[in-house]
Amino acid sequence: MLCHHLGIEGPKALVSSRKDGDGLYPGGEEDQDTTQQDEEGCEVSPPESPSAVQAPIDTFLDISKIRSPHSIDSPPSARASRSGTRSDLISKGIITATIAQRLVQHYFSRLDHYLYGIGGEYQGLEQLRTSAPILLAAICTVSALHDPQDRTVYEACNREFRSLVAKSTFEKRDVDYIRALCISSFWLADASRIFCSDAIRRAADMRLHRSFDALFDDRSAGAPSAPSPSSQNPSVAADRVRLWYLLFVCDQHLSILHNRDSLLRSEKAIAVGWESYLHRAEANEADVRILSQVSLLVIMGQVRDVLGSDNQTPLPAALASQILNYSRQLDKWYTKFSGLFVPNAFLGEFPKQGLQLHYQFGKLYLGHQVFKGLHGRPIPPQFLTAATMAHDTAVAIFEMILGQPELQEGLVGMPHYFHVMIAFAGHLLLEICQNYYEQLGIKVQDDFQLINSALHLFRKTQCIPQHPIWRMTPGLSRKLQDCATSIGVLVPSTTMPTGGLAAQSVMPDQQHSVFYPPVPSAGTSAQPIDELLFTDFGEFNFPDLTSNFMT
Fold first, then answer.
1. What pTM did the predictor assign?
2. Compositionally biased, Acidic residues: which spans (predicted)?
3. Is-contact 455 470, C-beta < 8 A?
4. E strand residue ranges, 36-76
5. Would you say 128 and 143 are in contact if contact means Cβ atoms under 8 Å apart?
6. Can you say whether the dihedral through the CA atoms of 120, 125, 130, 136 is positive or negative?
7. What angle do CA 414, 417, 418 make, to 5 degrees?
8. Concatenated DSSP letters for 320-381?
9. Is residue 160 included in any domain, yes or no?
10. Cα(400)–Cα(408) distance, rounded to whole angstroms?
11. Terminal Cα distance for the chain, rounded
12. How many other CB atoms sit within 10 Å of the CB of residue 318?
């Protein structure tokens, strides 16, 4: 009667979740599969009943009869393409099945473990081709980025993956599409923000964050109003929670690198409540590693919010106590998690060493705040301790890299956040040496030697020209030379790697040669850098520091 009084159409009949006598849902098996696929999609769709209304847009879509071309009320012709054979990198002739098999095997045997096994249930090429072609494209692109032998494969895969993402902007996609965007966000630096923001948008439309509640629904009186696969299957819900946490981590990483607010702020309670997830009996080594990142980035987010990393004015003296407080929080964080880490079957001791490196990144990010707005003026007395911490942390980062083989092996493998923070540590260290070596009592020769040794290591690291190691090495080399010249100190020489890197002014054969980062020759500009790479980091200019180490 209410609908009649308001002059609107009455609600649809409730859709039963019970099977009919033949064991099928009403409408047949084909409609059942189609409905399940659409429920998994990311576009906002009208509710099936008033009890399922979750947002104002749901009511609007229902009463206005606006349907997605992919929704269950669309004619079969609009969805015909979904049931056809899906094309992929191999069927399109972009790469061969042999190359794809090698790339997929390399990803799952090593790279996926840097990202806590987020590749999900897929472990083979044929399964990816059948179920998730765009995830296959993302995996092949990321894997090819870490293959020093074949630059052209990376370029072909990257071009195809970007094309698929661009064409899918207005289309409905499933959770594996978000997985593909998440994986690419961590490694493909030049488009990371684009991939991450799209993944976050789609995750919000899918209400991925509600999977967290689904894991604990059986312990509470309330239950979801509309059943979903994640609420019915705890393993699916756990996988989606891990995926959401990784989106949070990537978003926070980009927030730090670009000095911008994070996108995932409304669901911050889930991030703060990470201990509930960790205390589950099913939590494993990967969960510990993921949640160590979440916990750390919650602290670093507070540093950004309170100290305001994009503010160009010097910090007020009253904030000195806040810096001390955050420093203690970082110490407690490391103490808590360092005892929980164990060697990884695929990465050895890298996870624990990565934890140490992230601890240093946190200290570096905190300490660099005191240099804001100084423009070369002396450091205020109340911030001298924090300034010294920033210097010592930058030194510790390079000492770790030079002293730990697992970190050296991971230079081609670890996500790009590591490379950018390492490069920033070098840049900040050189800026401190140049402007404050007298006030802080720094032995600049020792620091220059440390940076030079790290550069020597980077030059010996095999990688293709699109890899961050290749990109950051020439810029950091020039920064070292400029700082040494400005204070009249000679840069110690190092032995060139075998093979003569000076010859790299001519690009090696792209199909079969092993690539090394170029060495800028004296008196000449460095090798031109691909304009597409690192354009995403145009805002990575920490206050009072010109972070041009990548160009």
1. 0.79
2. 28-42
3. no
4. none
5. no
6. positive
7. 55
8. HHHHHHHHHHHHHHHHHHHTT---BTTTBTHHHHHHHHHHHHHHHHHHGGGGTT-TTPPPPG
9. no
10. 9
11. 69
12. 8
Tokens 């409730």 found at: 14
- Helices 97-106, 133-145: inter-axial angle, 10-degree rounding: 70
CB 117 within 8 A of CB 346: no
State the residue range of the domain holding 403. Answer: 338-371+394-498+509-551
Domain annotation covers residue 26: yes
Q: What is the DSSP letter of 491?
A: P
Is residue 362 assigned to a domain? yes
Domain contains 132: no
Cβ proximity of 14 and 49 under 8 Å: yes
Span 45-79, pLDDT tens digits: 444 444 445 577 766 766 765 554 444 444 444 44
Reported as a single tens digit per residue, the pLDDT across 458-494 is 999 999 999 999 999 999 999 999 999 999 888 776 5
Q: How many CA atoms lie within 13 A of 38 on its CB side?
A: 20
The rounded Cα 527 to chain-centroid distance in angstroms is 28
Other C-beta atoms closer than 10 Å to the C-beta of 464 total: 23
